[in-house]
Each structure stands twice: as structure tokens, then as C-alpha cells.
Task: structure prediction
Amino acid sequence: MIRAELSRKIACPECDLLLDRPVVLRSQTAHCPRCGSRLFNCRHNSVERSLALALAGLILLFPANLFPILSLQILGLHQQQTIFSSAMGLYGDDLGIVALAVLLFAIVVPACKLLLLAYVSAALQFSRPWPALPLAMRYYQHLDEWAMLEVYLIAVLVAIVKLIDIATVHPGVGLYSLAGLILISTLSSTMLDRDLYWHLIDARRGEPQHV
Amino acid sequence: MYSWHDSAASQGLLSCHECQAVWPQALEHGHCPRCGAPLHLRKPHALARTWAFLLTAALLMLPANLLPIMSIAILGAGEPSTIIGGALELARHGVWGIALIILAASLLIPAGKLVGLIMLLLTVQRGWTTNLRQKMILFRIVHWVGRWSMLDIFVVGILVALVQFGNLAYVTGLSGAIAFAGVVIFTMLAANSFDTRLIWDRHLQETDIDPQH
Result:
């Protein structure tokens, strides 16, 4: 079969049902008729919106990581905490592997996801033939579930409840930035039309070839 | 109803696991012409890998729940507490909501993931063919919910960084946290290695009465 013909087909990623590519209108979602999995998420202006959200997220990364999330006061003594210091605290208690996991899931992976999304979206938006676009998109998809900022936010709330009896807890600028960052990165995931992205990445590389 | 002949695999086609492009099976073991990912008809060694990650996680669940994950010392007095101990402590103070969230995230979710994935593995290996759509929903829940178990690790990290007041109040992270982080990571890897298409392949091949295509 030639490539153009194959590109009109899709196979459900979860049950392998071969289908003719459905026509999906704006803001609609196509589900597999056999297993019910989500096939496509068609999004209006996906590239522009993802680019805008990724850039906004990259800006918010700085206050979320540099300003204290919580500060604690006991008898006039003060202590502050950022995401990075919560990883370093674990490292100081000889839990290096756990510290590494916190560092990766709460700082490195969310930042890499935003960078990759901004890179791919900018290349598609401005039609630039930047290198390694398929690789960047693949890494973005792999990293997706390992970003755990929203879990971290709930952990902050749990910590507040645990500490409220023994000390005065003050939320810092970092906490509000973190909440904003989570909102932005969740929105950027829902605005991303992966199927469209792969098509555009493919189209940037010239004419469809025969297999 | 859809039969085995509606699956891409029975028509000599495969789809890329990463960008979903459809290709002839002749390209298997090569790389996807669109995205460059290695092409496989099904995820390689899906069952063996899922079992291996699951067993690792199951073994780690014992130290994760039996060893203390942190100790909170206030005015010099304090003792190491396990995850369940910490949740019970919160419940005793009347903070039921948070106690339930912690219990769910650290006990019910990992245990539920373990049971759910074993059910799915047995479905493939024993050829169980009932409620396949429900099993897909089970898999999606198992896949989505896994990351929430990191909650407790983050809580320990935050407390350790925040409560450093010498003799007045002091929180230390303990080795149970390593085992617990291991449980979370290995159950997530297990869910990622599983291939739900295997559930359908076996069922469809067995119920295929009329191979006319």
C-alpha cells in the first residue's frame, strides 16, 4: 500500500481496531467503537494555544521554584521551603534516591515538558525546519505522566494540615505561582492535539514518500 | 460486532506506538518513517516485563508499609512513624478527610494497582474473555491513578525541609521512603509495559468462527 492510502487509516492504540480516519470537528473527541478509548482530541488553534501556554508556563516556573512555597514560624523562629529545598532535605537524611525522584518529578520533568512543547509548537507555528522535532515530540509524550506538580500541590496542603497544630504556617508567593503553573500545564496538555502535531511535523519534512 | 479481521494485525498492518501512524508489518523491527521510534506489532515482552515490575513492587510494599518513613520529634520527644501510623494520627486529631486521602493514596492505590494489573495479566494468559470493555476501563484507571501515590513522599520532603528547629521540633526522613518511592515507580513502569491489545487479540482469535476474509 502506498503511504497516502495508509495515512487515511488509523489503528486504535489500545485494541488495534483498524478504522478509516474519522472526520473530527473542532473541540470534538473521537472514541474507539470497540474498546472505548480516546482516539483523537481535536482542538481549535491547538498550535498557537499550546505555544502561548507553554511560554506562560516557562515564565511561571521561575517564581514557583525560586520563592518559598511555605514558611513556618515557631516561637519567633523562621523556616522557609521551596521545591528544591524539599528534595535537598531528603538528600541530607541519606535518602538520595528519593531526593532524586522528587527533583525529577517536581522540577526537571515539568520544566522539560514545557520546554519541549514550546520548542515543537514554535517550530510548527512559524514553519521553521528546526532539528529533532519528531524526537522532541516523542520525549514530550514519554515524559507526560512523570510530571507530578499537582500531586506536589496536594502534598503541600497535607503538610499544612499536619503542621497547623504545632506552628504558624504561611503560604508564600511560590505556592500561588505553583497553583498557576499547574493550571497552565494542565491546560496545555488538554489543548495539545497530538494527531495534528504529528501531521504537521511530518508535513514539514516534505512530500509523502512511497513505502 | 467486530472480529479479529477488523484488527490491523490481521490485515498485515501495524501502528507506531508513539505517533500512531499505520505501516505494513514488513517494517516491524525497523524504525517508524514518520517519528523514528522502533516499530513493534505489540510492545516487546509485555507480559514478562509487567510481571517483573509488578513482583518488584509487591516485594517493596512490605518494607514500604512496615518501615517508618519519617520521625517527627517535638521538644526532643517523638518516634518514627509509618505511613499508616501517620494517617491514624491525623484521624485521631479529627482530620478525617486528609487521613482518608493519605490512606487512599498510599495504601489502597498501590494495592489496587497490583490486583488490577494481575487481573489483566491473567486475562491475557488464561484467555478470560468476559467484560473486556470494563477491563479497559480498569486499565485506564490503574494507569491514571498511579502517580498520586507519590503524595506521601512529597509530604515527607516538605516536612523535612520545613521543620528544622533543633530540639524544639525536628523532622527526619527514614528509609521506608526509599521502598515507598520504589513501589510507586515500579507500579507505574508495570502499567507502562502492559499492552492492552493483547487482551483483545486472544479473545478475538478464539471467538473467530468464520474466517472468510
